[in-house]
Amino acid sequence: SKHIFLPALSLGGCHRSKQLLKHAVVCLGFLCVVLLAGNIGQFFFCNFNTVSTNLNSNSFYPFVGMLCPKKWTKFKTSCYFVSTERRNWTESRHACVDEGADLMIIDSHEEQVFVNRLLHKDQNAWIGLTDSVEDGVWMWLDGNTVTTTFWQAEQPNNYGGNQDCGELVQTQSGGEWNDDGCFSKQISICEK
Ligand SMILES: [Ca+2]
Ligand SMILES: [Ca+2]
Ligand SMILES: [Ca+2]
C-alpha cells in the first residue's frame, strides 16, 4: 500500500503546487488591477485638483446652474458682493477672504461694466489692485501685472505720495479707476 500511497501523495503535492501557482497568478493579476485602479484614481484626483486650483484663483461658480450665495450677484464664472460697511483696503480684503473670496480682479471691460452697475452713482469701492510692493507698478491680488487699464484722467497720481490702493469709481461710461490712500474707509467689491 506504501507503493500506491507515495505516488498518490506526490501527485497530490504537484496538484497543490499547481493550485498555489494558480492562486499566485490570480493574486498578481488582482494586484495589477489594484495598482492600475490606483493610478487611474490618482490621475483623476490630480487633474481634478488642478482644475479646482484654477477655479480657486478667480472663479468658484463656473457652471451655468451654479448659483451664488445669498446677497452675491453672478456674472459669468464669478460671484460678486458689494459691501455696505466701510473699511480700509486691508480690512476690506480680510472681509472678502472671510467669505471665501478676495477683492475683485477686473479681467475684462465687460466684467467692469457689469460690476459698475452694482454701484450707486459716483460711488467708489476698493478692488484687488495695489502698487504697495513697488510704487507705480500696479498689480492684481493674484500676482498678475495690470495690462488693460481704466484709470481716470490724470490717475494714478499717488497724491501726497501715499496712494497705493486701487478703487473703482462708478461712472456712466462703465467705471474708472483711481489710486487712493489704503487707510481710507470705503465700501469694497469681493469676487469669488
Ligand atoms: Ca474677475
Ligand atoms: Ca502709489
Ligand atoms: Ca489718486
Automatic annotation (TrEMBL):
Question: What highest taxon heads this organism's lineage?
Answer: Eukaryota
Q: Where are the transmembrane segments?
A: 20-45
Keyword vocabulary terms for this entry: Disulfide bond, Lectin, Membrane, Transmembrane, Transmembrane helix
Spell out the CDD domains in the cross-references: CLECT_DC-SIGN_like (cd03590)
Q: Which stretches make up the C-type lectin domain? A: 75-191
Q: Does the keyword Disulfide bond apply?
A: yes
Which GO molecular function annotations are given, in alphabetical order? carbohydrate binding
The reply on keyword Membrane is yes
Q: What is this protein called?
A: C-type lectin domain-containing protein
